[in-house]
Design goal:
Blueprint lengths: L11 H12 L4 H19 L14 H24 L10 H7 L7 H19 L4 H4 L16 H6 L6 H5 L3
Helix pairs in contact: 2-5, 3-4, 3-5
Length: 171
């Protein structure tokens, strides 16, 4: 996350508010549908800087794509729990450890996009026909209060609204 941004674990409510503000009132499914093209454009703009971290403890654009891919995989299960059951507990994960240990900065964008794009398409096919009531079902996250944890679709759409400049430079 960018410097000056709330910590996703210790300041979960502020973190979610900041990220959800990027989505505004836009349809989360539409934003998610546009994400692959936005990511490709981001990599074209970043060019040689795709592995460059803008500051210590900040992710490169390639690591951000790795995180977005990891999040898509994780949220795939969370979508199913939210749509299929009420108040299901879900596992949290340490996104920084995943980015480091899965070595996203050593990969190429196409390698990550080959995983991300079909997973995103599958998740949208699952989510779109669900009822509004099902889409608003909460899941229980071990590190966050239910009222601070927005429905999965709004959460997964929000970081994809970052501009290429926001991903290159700390805010």
């Amino acid at each position: 996350m960018a410097q000056g941004s709330p910590d996703p674990v210790t300041q979960a409510s502020a973190y979610h508010k900041q990220l959800l503000s990027l989505l505004g009132n836009d349809d989360p499914a539409k934003v998610q549908e546009e994400t692959p093209a936005a990511l490709r454009a981001m990599f074209q703009e970043a060019a040689q800087d795709k592995r460059t971290r803008p500051a210590e403890k900040e992710w490169s654009i390639l690591e951000l794509l790795g995180h977005i891919t990891d999040a898509e995989i994780v949220v795939s299960g969370r979508y199913r729990w939210a749509l299929g059951q009420d108040g299901t507990p879900v596992l949290g994960y340490d996104q920084d450890l995943w980015v480091e240990r899965l070595r996203h900065n050593d990969k190429e964008p196409d390698e990550l996009l080959e995983t991300f794009i079909p997973m995103r398409a599958s998740n949208l096919k699952l989510w779109r026909p669900a009822s509004p009531r099902a889409k608003d079902r909460a899941v229980k996250h071990p590190q966050r209060a239910a009222h601070d944890y927005p429905p999965p679709q709004r959460r997964i759409a929000r970081p994809h609204r970052l501009t290429p400049q926001q991903t290159i430079e700390p805010v």
